[in-house]
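Hey,

The postdoc asked me to send both predictions to you directly instead of through the lab channel. I've kept everything plain text so nothing gets mangled by the mail client. Protein one:
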Amino acid sequence: MAVAPMKRLLVAAHRSEREELLHELQRLGVVEIQELDPKDLEEGARVVKETPGDELLSLEDKLGEVRYVLDFLDRHFPPPRTLIEQFAGSKVPIDEEELEKIGEFDYGEIYQECRRLDEALTELNNKKSRLQTSMEQVEPWLKLDISLDAPVETDWVRVLIGSIALRGEVEAASELKEAVPESCWVEVDRDRDRVRLVIIIPRDEAEKVQEILARYDYTPAVLPRYGGTAQEFYEGCQEEIARLDEEGAKVIEAIKELVEYRFQLRALYDYLGLSRDRLLAATNLVRTEKACLLEGWVKEEDVDEVVDRLEGRLESAAVQVRDPEPDEETPVALDNGPLSRPFEVLMQLYSLPTRFQLDPTGLVAFFFGLFFAMAMTDAGYGIMLAAICFILLRKVHMSPLGERTFQLLFLGGLATIVAGVLSGGWWGDNIITIKPLWFSPSAQPLTFLLLSFGLGIVHLYVGMALGFYENVRKGDILAGIYDQVLWMVLVGSLILWVAAGEAYPGLVNIAKWAAIISSVGIILTGGREHKNILVRLAGGIYSLYNVSGYLSDILSYSRLLGLGMATGIIANVINIVAMMVFQLPVIGPIGAVLILVGGHLFNLFISVVGSYVHCSRLQYVEFFGKFYEGGGRAFAPFAPETKYVYLEE
């Protein structure tokens, strides 16, 4: 339960070995490289920033091309993934020698072929889209039995092709016949909204006819020019689309033949990414005409390994190690035991301590595991959670953060088994009825509530005690007394006052005077940062109001009762529904099994999410609020970061 001690590292090497230097540091993965400014060195030293030059641009271009090919292949042939891989992701193991060989893989022809096939597909899809648009235009006019390129206007006659609103059909025909007796009205087709028409009129009456039709929502048809009927055009489009689909199928088949190169391309992408990362890291170095220099941080436990590796494998490397300055901020890496280490993820998600602060991970591990088990309170779900996490941890290569999260949930599952045995919860308590070793939450909810409050009070007191310890460690004992001890006395006396009641008048009297004395102390010291005595007293009175915050914090632990009860009640409801379905003939047993499996998996999921979120809140708000400041910067060593493969040792 501590912050790992750090050492400052200074490495010098000949410029010709720069790439090998960075390669070794990347393999080690334990050194955080810091940006080194030439101005920070001795005056007069002829040093400049190291620059990767055009090599970095070339690598970025190659990465972009390989990324394009992978996206193109994945778009048309998504790689098959197991349920576990879909949930947690997976990387393929590969040794460094094989990765170096793949780095020489010539992907140029594959890239050009993908470009050609992509353009071919785009062109085919564009043609299909245009044909489909034309088909949509003529589809309402399939019963029009005249050629689409027939003339619509002569010296004497004009032909109008369009549609009007269905409700105005009769009035429009009547008004048109009355106004232009020579007109000819031919109905082509109709649907529930529109009537499609061909209207033949004298050419010199066109303006009058247009005015009449406009009153009935007339819309002229937009038809393609074609030497045949609308039906013939439509069928021709269908034939052309079928031909384009055949061409598209050939292109897809050609793409499928390239899928066999997917692993090489993925490994090449990671190889190029690692090379790019080394060049980016090089920008943190400075150089002279013949030498390069880098500075960074390394954990004390890794110093010997780093020095031996660099000085042993590089002819020109010289390594200097020093302690950080007394007031120098260092990156933070936590150093905890195997049971506490998974709970470092909670610290990382909140805020890491600085090297001058206490690392509370061990206490967080204990209380989080305890509260998580209380919130789940079912041994059956604990078994399921532990089993799922165990399988994922064994079968899937995860990121460090993901791995520790599932380790945390695995330990939470084991703790839940213990809580379930004590409370008698085995996927509810109405199918598997095993007598609890302690008490049943559903039968004795008040006991569960009092237990939650009691553990919550202990949790808060531990937080206040740590706050007192931090003040003492800083040499400010009075601050510890004013800000923690007085509050511990006040909160404890109020709890004792309420708990003792009328049964123990002596304890009530002691609690009353302890509360009065501690309240006076808080009023006198709560505003001590102010010089004006009136302002100081006002600040102290305002500080005393925070007693409601402490009581609110204690009430927050009632969420453990709600979560624990909800898990068991939902499990019981699932069991009851499954047993009801089981009574149905033929399909009953199958339906009952599906309800039991699906229902309990769903309940497990929502219970885990709820327990994780609320138990985290109890740490972040109620516990950390009493002592923890955080603000540390996470240690970020220069290590291989890949997307598809991981390097085997």
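Protein two:
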Amino acid sequence: MGLGLSAAEVPWPKLPERDGPVVIPAQEWPARPGAREVRVLISYPDGTRGSIRPRTGIFLTLHNWGGTDCAGTANPVALAREFNCVALCVNYLQSGPKDSIEGPEPYDFGWLQGLDALRALWLVFHELDSAKIPFARGRLFATGGSGGGNVTLMANKLAPRTFTAVVDMCGMKKLSDALAYNLPAANGLNARWSREPASASFLTAGAQEIRFVGHPAHLAEMKRLGSTAKIFSVHGLDDKTCLGDGQEMAANMMRAGLDIMPVWVTKEMVDGKVFTTTGHALGNRTLIPGHVAGKFLRADSADALERKTLTDFERREDIRYPTTDGAFVISYARGFPVGRFEPAPGAPSYPDRFDVLRVNGTDGKITSAKSVADWESRRRHILPALERVMGTFPNPAKRVALDVKVLEEVKLEGGLLRRKLTYQSDATDRVAAYLFLPEATAKAKLPAVLCLHQTARLGKAESAGLVENPKQYALHLAQRGYVTFAPDYPSFGDSKYDFHPRHGYASGTMKAIWDNVRAVDLLESLPEVDAARLGVIGHSLGGHNAMFTAVFEPRLRVIVSSCGFTTFRKDDLPSWTGKVYMPRIAGEFGNDAAKVPFDFPEIVAAFAPRPFLTCSAEGDSDFDVSGVRDVLEAARKVYELHGRAGDLVGYYPKGPHAFPEDARKVAYNFLDQHLRR
């Protein structure tokens, strides 16, 4: 999509001689195909084009969701005069309540809106450059409030080497499920997207990811490209709309090494002039940029910022942001930006799931992996195959604040603390869990193990030892000095999960995987936990739940599965098809192991080089032990490529489907071997 014309062919306007509006061509909006234009209000330092001087910069000021011109953002005339700049108000896509709030189409949420703002910036940059009018090309700024804060951050993301500084005032950081689907957590904001693939308003994974300004992989790409913009993000601590997402974005930017300066407005900072509230409104949005960043923005300041490198407009290169379903590309080949989406090629299918070294190339060539690098090509094909059956793994924009709530604390013998809590897994569901903290956590960070229960009505209570049983490994491991975490599987224990598609999952399996991934987030956040030493253990349902989670979650460094699997070739496939598991095995693949696009050899191979132990009972009537041996034999070839064949271990206790004492001893020692230092 796009105009497809060179800058010379597009009827770009000339800059006005005095403050006033211009209309620029914009990229086509697929929801309403055809030519589109955007109105831009231009303000000069003293009201005339002739007031532009060598120190004059350019400053975008972007209105809020539902606004027009400069509603809810800094006054352009004030910005132009205070900071010696050409200030631009952009009526980007869906400006005004008719299109943004009342219209039937989904709210764009920063993609085309950011491109519109960048085109306005390019107009001024290009016009002054072409006319050889000296200006400060290294002083390019942006600010905006609420929805305009979102577009400000998106513009900086889409042109990562262009801005000198941006000031986000209470902006939205991502198109969360709550905002996209009008869920209660959105506090009445409705972006009108749909979960239904057949809908014209369907929100794809990639479309959601590109709109996440705190996306870790995208931030890493910005850093790699050399983004140097100083980012000010201002939020009131009582902002119920955007604070949590703002905190997440700031933390992600810090981890990526970007220059982020968050400003959290406290009650002590409310002065009645600049800040009037710690809520979403903040206060005087004309004064806030100067208050938090003035010394960097003012042309005559000793601390004035000036970018020394070329803008993306001048580089004429593409910016690429990978997503789970392809890549979003912003082309600057014409100077001004043109955005497009490139879908990822479909992952090839493999007729023999046991031939784990086979690699099907995009060119149709078939090769056999001879190195770890060769194998990585095959590994990339495994997760899409699982997703065809389990449903799409939630993308990073799906994360919500964990909002941990402690329900009870009980001190146990041996200095153990057992804490019952709940955490917010996604936009609609909380998960209950038991957390065990050994007394030793007061002295040093400890390894942690995620403990997943079997098919038991009481759920987490069994592995936590609240009922007498041999499978209380959350308690056992805590007694050995681990931090342990035992959550409920969906619909077990305290969970009332109903498996309705409105929650966004195609299977109970994928819902459980995501709950466990959020449990890892929670463990990683605890001061008592060494986040580099995380493992997972489970029996039966918990055994394959551990495996399914670990294949998607690389932070789990060690995996232990007791009586959790066999090859689909030797299993009762219909038993996997209930709503708690993977209904598509029956509905789309006819309960035929040859048609199901993955099998356990690929899952275990994908763990490599992480240590994996299976304790599989010789007399297991649920999971054929000969099939387990078949799986390990096939997967061992990949562990051998990594030089870690000894870290793939099978232990086969006598007896039925159980986790007997000898197997538990082997499992606990295996965890000790790989997680203790």
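Summary for protein two, as requested: Residues 18 and 142 are 21 Å apart (CA to CA).

Thanks,
C.
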